[in-house]
Amino acid sequence: MEARCPRCSTVFTTDRSGIQFCPNCGQQVDVPEPPRAASPGWGPGPSGPGAAGGGPGGGRFTGEPPPGGGHAPGHRDLTPWERRKEIGFLKGFFETWKQSLFTPQLFFPTVRPDVPWTEALYYAWIIHAVTIVFAAPFVGLGILGSTLPHNLGDAAQMENAMRAFSGVAGMGWLVLSLLIYPLVVLAVSAIVHLMAMLFGAAQNGYGATVRALCYSAGPNLLSIVPCFGCLTFIYSLVLAIFGVASLQQTSMGKAAGIVLVPFVVVLCCCGLFYGLALASIMSIVNSTAGGTRTL
Asked: Are 115 and 211 in contact (CB under 8 A)?
């Protein structure tokens, strides 16, 4: 018999009634039993809990887990962050961060692709804001400023001036990055989604790609620990692969290509740019040194 998902309107074929899952969106559907022909002389048909509804729900879509408790495989629901009004802001944030970071293979398959992407973007934006708050004292004090050679006059005074300048410039960059963060995320998501379209794995739309990338931002909180920056970036890419594979319902191989190809292209372009810049600088230095020897 055929059943229709009340959420995405997908019609699918099934050989049984009762609670099962839509093959397109993963939502639960309570498939009613087919009507039975009336049998003369036997009175009215059954009307109890097990009649015409295949069990709980009576033929209605309930959205509840199957009897027995817990989420069945493939069940998609709101993330703890998206249920923060119910369970609390801090708990919703922490539970989402913990699940996405430590059990991504269980977390991402339960994330719904049809929820507005603004919820996930808000979550990632908060993570970025927290990292800025922790980094601001170090940047503001100019701790990352470089040391100047001691043969440039009053080196101590010059170094203090450069440290102050780097602190002001660094704080300005932090504030700017906080303001433009949503635009950067949406732009990166657009590039990744374009790759998903090229790979034929964009069936759930741009919003699902944004949600996948935003919920993979959890490792960025650990970047405040010294020497963890590179590791957290790599793990964010791994989580993005999990997210794209689950929310766009594609294979891990395709998801890896969708996420990594743009990164490799950008990395190659940056390497080429820095190589050309370094070659230009060396050329200028060599020409200047040759001119000095001639004089």
From this structure: yes
> Collapsing DSSP states into helix, strand and coil, what is residue 24?
coil
Distances (CA, A) of 264 to 43, 121, 217, 219, 223: 72, 24, 19, 20, 22
> Which residues, in sequence order, are CB contacts of 45 under 8 Å at separation 6+?
36, 38, 51, 52
Residue with tokens 């295949």: 54
Say how far apart CA 247 and CA 110 lie, in whole Å. Answer: 9
pTM reported for the whole predicted model? 0.62
In our burial notation (b when 16+ CB lie closer than 10 A, e otherwise), range 132-163 reads beebeeebeebeebeebeeeeeeeeeebeeeb
Provide φ and ψ at 35, rounded to 5°. -60, 140
Fill in the amino acid letter for 273.
Answer: F
pLDDT in tens, the chain (295 residues): 677 777 777 777 777 777 677 777 766 677 777 765 444 443 444 444 444 333 333 333 333 443 433 343 457 889 999 999 999 999 999 999 999 999 999 999 999 999 999 999 999 999 999 998 887 776 655 544 444 444 444 445 545 554 554 556 667 777 888 999 999 999 999 999 999 999 999 999 999 999 999 999 999 988 877 777 788 989 999 999 999 999 999 999 999 999 999 888 877 877 777 777 777 777 776 676 555 555 5
Render 47-74 in DSSP notation, one character per residue.
-STTSSSSSTTTTS---PPPTTSSPPTT
* Coarse DSSP helix, strand, coil percentages of the chain, rounded to the nearest 5 percent: 60, 5, 35
The pair of three-digit structure tokens given for residue 29, joined into one six-digit string: 């559907």
Rounded to whole angstroms, the Cα distance separating 231 from 239 reads 12
